[in-house]
Amino acid sequence: TVTYSSGAIVSEKQLLAADKKETIKVRVEFKKDLIAADLPQVETALNLTFSINYIQADDSAVAITHPVCKRATTLHTEVCNQIKNGSGIVGGFCNGSGYAVGDTITYGNLGTTGTLASGDAFDCDVNGDGIYDPLTERFYYVSDLDTDNSYAVLIYYNGVSEGVANNTTASAYNTDSSGDLGPQTAMLQLPTTKQWPNVSLANTTRDIKDETGTVIVEGFSYAGYAARLLTAQEVNSACKNNAVGSWKAGDLNECQYLLENTNYTNKNLKNGKWLESFNSVSPKHSFIWVTNGSDQAVYSGAVDSGSAYLISPAIEVPKSKISY
């Protein structure tokens, strides 16, 4: 808002985009009784003093009009086409969760206005085109960001390959099996900031930990990418049963949204999705935690395994930019 010292408004309610500038022209008029004889004195003595006041609208006001994520109005479904395997283990894909072959599985929740709960479904305009596509821009709320609870962590419904939704192309976590390097290979499949310009990580530099919280890779950089992998801690927070580290079939039954687009329902799809976190008991940190569709659990996979697990992007969105 631009004002005279008297408080009169010159300009208001104008939006100024980031990294842009604005030129304001001020017109000065002399009194009507000014005569020509006064002009020489005016030229040497005139001083003009004015002030400019800019008031930035807060994020909450902007979010109401242009949120990044909106609550979904419909939910994704898949048909159960898997049965318990021959060994008779408790798991057994979607059939082991109590679904009969041919039953419809519904992923996530429509949720309650004003609250965020694990599995709440959102459509997020990650590419900034103004469209909230429920088919290709579906995310699920997992937990708050552990370092800043003003941010929400949401997981993509699918895997990605070079930033594009894909449930058939797997990737290694890292092709170097020696470990201690972080998700260097997996990161390359995540959406870039050019592909998803409407979201960004609160901090692109992260310490990669194991499920106990011990730092394995210090200062790993996701620079250039709009998303990251989900952590063991976030899965445990969402599923409320310490699924990471318990090795129990059925641990993800209350978080089935983490199993969408895996072999949980279809034997032709991949086993599950990589997490970011190392398995604390693996030799030389060579195993990473993964979601597992066959047993609805969190197991671990060899860091250089490139055929079994999808890359599923996790985004960090300020709650002020989520319509919930």
Number of helices: 5
- Strands of the widest sheet, in order across it, are 17-8-7-6-3-18
Major pleated sheet: 6 strands, mixed
Distance between the termini: 30 Å
Catalogue the unreliable spans.
1-10, 57-63
Number of strands: 18
Structural class of the secondary structure composition? mainly beta
**What percent of residues adopt helix (DSSP H or I)?**
under 10%
Fraction of residues in β-strands: 15-25%
Question: What is the general shape?
Answer: elongated
- Rg, Cα atoms, Å: 27 Å
Note the run of SSEs as H and E.
EEHHEEHEEEEEEHEEHEEEEEE
Mean pLDDT: 86
Description:
There is one protein chain. With 324 residues, the protein is mainly β. The chain has five helices and 18 strands. The protein has helices at 39-45, 59-65, 93-96, 184-187, 232-239, and strands at 2-3, 9-11, 69-71, 77-79, 104-106, 121-124, 138-145, 148-156, 160-161, 164-165, 205-209, 215-221, 272-278, 287-292, 297-302, 309-310, 314-318, 322-323. The strands form six sheets. A six-stranded mixed β-sheet has the order 17-8-7-6-3-18. A four-stranded mixed β-sheet has the order 15-14-13-16, with no helix packed on it. Strand 14 (287-292) and strand 15 form a beta hairpin. It is elongated. The relative contact order is 0.17. Residues 1-10 and 57-63 have low confidence and may be disordered.
Question: Can I get a quick summary?
Answer:
The protein is mainly β. It has helices at residues 39-45, 59-65, 93-96, 184-187, 232-239, and strands spanning 2-3, 9-11, 69-71, 77-79, 104-106, 121-124, 138-145, 148-156, 160-161, 164-165, 205-209, 215-221, 272-278, 287-292, 297-302, 309-310, 314-318, 322-323.
